[in-house]
Structure formats: C-alpha cells, structure tokens
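yo

u said u wanted the structure for the complex thing, so here. seqs first:
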Amino acid sequence: MKNRRKHFLVDKSLQFHYLLYIVLTLTLVAGVGIVGSYFGIWGSAIKIFSEESLRESMLTAAQLTDYERARRPFFKPQEAPSIRNYQDTALLSERQREMIREIMNETTRRMVGLGIFLVFFIGWGSIFLTHKIAGPVFKLKQYLHRVEQGDLTTRIQFRKFDEIHKLADDFNATIAALDAHVGTMKRMVRESSSETVLNTFKKELSKFKTSN
Amino acid sequence: MRHCETASQTKSKQSQKQRLLRPPQCVGGQAGLFTRRLFGGLEMTIMFSFILQCIPIHAETDSYLALSKEDRALLKKIQKDTFQYFLIHTDAQTGLTKDSSRSGAPASIAATGFALASFSIASQNGWLSYREAYERVERTMSTLENRAAEENGFFYHFLDPKTGKRIWASEVSSIDTALLMAGVLLAASYFNGTGLELRAKKLYERVHWEWMLNGSLLFSHGWKPKQGFLPYYWDIYAEHLILQALALGSETHPVPIETWTAWTRDTDSFNHHEIVYAYTGSLFTYQYSHAFIDFRNISDQGINYFQNSKEASLANKEFCELNQNEYQTYQNGIWGLSASLGPDGYKPYGAQPGLAFHDGTIASYGAISSMPFTPTESMVVVRMMYEKYGSKLYGPLGFKEAFNFDRKWWTNEYLGIDQGIIVLMLENVLNDGVVWKRFMKLPMIQRWLERTHLRTKPS
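structre next:
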C-alpha cells in the first residue's frame, strides 16, 4: 500500500491542539447536559416528591374529594372513610400523573432550548475552528495563483493564531529562493555579454531538477 | 356630619371619583405623553385624583342596618383583614386566587371571582388605590381571556395558579363559573367607562349556558373531558340562584325560561321556621347568591329568598342552641353550621331543615355572612368569637376557617370563597347594600327579572 498512512501524528502540535478543543467542547456539552438534567428532571422530581410536598398533595387530594362529596345531593358521612380513602388515592395518582407530565413537558422544553443553543454553539465553534485551517488554505491558493502568474515577490502572511504558520514559512523560503535565482538571471541579461549570460544561465539552471 | 349625607350625594361623589380616577391608559389613552402635555389640565386632574384616592369613599355612607359605632368599627376591621387574603393569595402574574391558604393549594375560579369583587370593594374603601385595583382586575381578566382552561366559556374549577392550566383533574364547574362571572361583572361595574366593562361583558357572553343543561332543563354540576357531564344536577334550592340568574339573563346564550321553574322548592320547617331548604342545611347555600343579588324585594311564587335566608339563619342558631348540651362549641351563643373544614376534613355541616350533619364544628364565616339577615344574632357570635376566642380564631387574615372546641381543634387555614363571602356580605351591611345596588343594575340581571316575571317591589 503505497499511500498508506504510517503515522497518525504527523503534526503533534496541531493535532494535540485540536484534540484539546474537541475534548473541552464535549466536556462542556456533557457537563451542561448532566447538570441540566439533574436540576431539571431530578431536581423537580425530588422537590415534587419531597415529604412536605407529598403531604400537601395528600391534603389537597383529600380536601378536593371532600369538596366534591359535600356538593353531592346524597352526602352520607358514615360511608366516608373507605370511599374517601379510595377516592383520595385515585385523585392523588391523577395529580401525580399530571405533575410527572408537567415535569416531562418542562424538561422537553428545556432540552429543546438547550439543544438549539448547543447546535448554534457547536456550529459557530466548528466554523471558528475550521477557519483556522480553511482560511490559510484559501489564502495559499490565492498566493499560488499569483506565483503562477509570475509574481515571485509574493510572500504569505497568516493571522497570528492561524494553524499552518510553518507551511507559510516554507512557502515563503521557496518563493524567496526562486525569486533570487530568477533575479540573478535577469540582472545578468541586463549587465553582461552574451557568452557570460549563457554561462551564468547554465550555472543557474543546473540548480533546478526538472522533468525535461 | 358623617352620617347625614344623602344617597344621591354619595352617588354623585362616587361617579365624580370614577370619572376622575381613571388609570393612565384611560386618561392619556394610547396617545400617552403627547396627549397629556397637550391637555395639561389632565396632569392636575391626576394629581387631584391621587389625593382623592386617599379618602375612603364610603367614610360617610351609612349602613341600612342600625349598628353601633363599636360594632361598625369591629366589622370594618374584620372586613379589611379578611380582604388581605386576596392580596396575599392571588398570583402576581396570572391574577388567579388560591382555593386555600395552604401551601400547594390550586387556584379556584370561584375564589378568583370573589377576589375580583374584593379588589373593587377595596378600592372603594381606600385599601387599594384605584390604579392598583384596576391593574389587578385587568391582570385577572387577561388570564381568563387568554390562558385559563375552559370549555364553551365555562372554566375548570381548579387551575394551576401559575399557568391557568387545568389541574387535579377538576371538572368544568357550572356554579363556580357563575360565581366567577358574578365577580367579573361586579368588578367591572366599579370601573365604568374603562375597557374592563366591555371585556367583562365579552367574557360573560362567551359562556354557553345552555350547553350545561345537557339537553334538560336542569343545570349539571359540571363536565369532565373523558367522563362527560357529571350525573348531578341543580334540582333543588341551593346556592345556584346566581347561576340561574346569569344564564337566564344572557342575550348570547340564554337558557329556556322553564329552567327557572324546573328545580323544586322543597319546604320544611324547624322550630316554627318554614324554609325552602337546601339538602345539607348548610348556611352558605342561603348566602352565596345573596352576596350579589338583592332578594329583599323579589318574590318568586310567593317566596322571598331574603326572608328565607333569614329564617334559615335563625333556624341554624336555634338548632345549635338545642344541641349545646351535646356540643360545648355551641355554648355562649355560638352558631354557624356551614360547609367548612373540620377535624375530619371538609364537610357539609348544616342544620335542620335538611340533612343537618354536625359534629360540633362551627364555620367562622357562617354567622358573619348571615349579618344582612340576622344582624343582632350574628353580631353576638362575632363579638364572642373575636373577644373571647380571638387568640385562637383570629389571625392576620381575619377569622380562620373553622373551629371545634369539643375536639380541641381549630385550623390555621383560610378558604378563599369563605373569605370572599365575608367581604361582600359585610360590604352590603356596612355600605348600604352597595354591592346589591351595583349588581342589580346590570342588564343581564334585569333581563333575568323580566324573563322570569319575578315581582319586585320598589326599594
């Protein structure tokens, strides 16, 4: 396999840098999710089913059942205990279902809100991070085009925190060397006789390895 | 002379105040600052109205009952303290009022109706500024218009005070919606000339009263989504007269005229008191509709329901007297058997005629709310409860719900509707039936009287 990648860590600095970004992002996402879930779901559940809250719910269930019974046109106090307990329980479980549904709805609303925030956050983060690579690559293409047009005075200048400064340095060194050679040849044409120029050209061209 | 002002002078002063004390949106309208600057005199009007707000408007009105200065002062204090319930237990965002002072209690639409009426009364008494009362009523109306769970204009009995959603699997309630609507209409009448009147009318007009008849001539107690109509109907005398009046007076969704005569007026007597009685014999059944409707001059098939409530209150008192050897609580002139919390939960306590279930528990609001019917007899109970047992029974929000000395039990809890009936009944007693006067002028009440041919005598 001719093109098989032998080393995954070809640029340790760059790759570890990105590894750090991603790990931090995922830690943040996971942290927000865990804390949000804890306080959003379990926090509400713990509060709703606390001893005090349950007691209040029991009392309310009993009271609302009493209201309903008191209003009926056949109130029979002697039948109260068993029926009352049954109805309290039924009403309480109804209320608990309402509360759990409310918690789930509230949690869903929070999760959707959190999800939308994270999508925007990760989207913006991705653009920001990839721009550190994509920006210099785009710039490099523009500079290469200028070199293709024959402008050997071109030098690349990347932003301070762009990732491929080393590549820019190598590119600039290459173009500077080419610039120096072609400049020498142009100066010889301007200043020397034909024989001297020819010798100088031969000497300069011998420094380049070409296909033909 | 504080007590010599005539009714017409008082009315004129009231209407003057109502004209002047409009909230900013009514004074300046949408035009806001520009309009106010353009009509600079309005600034003075607002300042003047602010000064007027500090003057209790009823300070110079008289009671239609002869009460001593001390009794009036005590009743005024009780009314004001009782009103505090609605300030504390009404949600600041939705304006829905909790059923009870207990933590975790749901909002009750009937309690909310009483709260609306109470805010308006508080404004008239100078306990709330006109602006604050207006804003509180407006907030509640917004919730009722947009958020509160309802079916065909009828609201669910219990709502989440924070959201207005149905909770506790409660029913769409006919009587509680009627009490809510009575509160909505009464409150709006205190803010005439503002948008609240129209909004109250719209809320009332969207109630499909005929739907609650379920194809019969009797109102169902309620309806549940999965169950349908509850199998209980308002078929005998009870607190549902307010429901009847509002439904029969509706222009948009009126019920057949036969609805008024479809329920039975069963009569029985106790201790020579002949009474069209409610099944449980609970005092509240003779009081709730009477908080809004002035039955003093109404005769229905020869029955005067005001007199009927007076007889029922006296029967309640005498029933307690006859049982005072069995229950120590009924001693010292204490009476007031009505549905309330008790040592074994909420029970429809009552006297004869009727079921007369009792265990020595007295509802604090019972005798107080019969004050329009039995002022002397009620005042004895009020004095006794306040002066002898006040340390146990009286709290920051007035009298606590109920007590039973035989069981050494008294609650620290207050119930919204029972607070409300005290505030409204005392307002009628202390301020010359002002709630009745306002409510009886409402067009829907006039239509009810016309449609049912109820004979009225001039006041």
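Residues 12-130 of chain A form one domain. The mean pLDDT of chain A is 77.
cya
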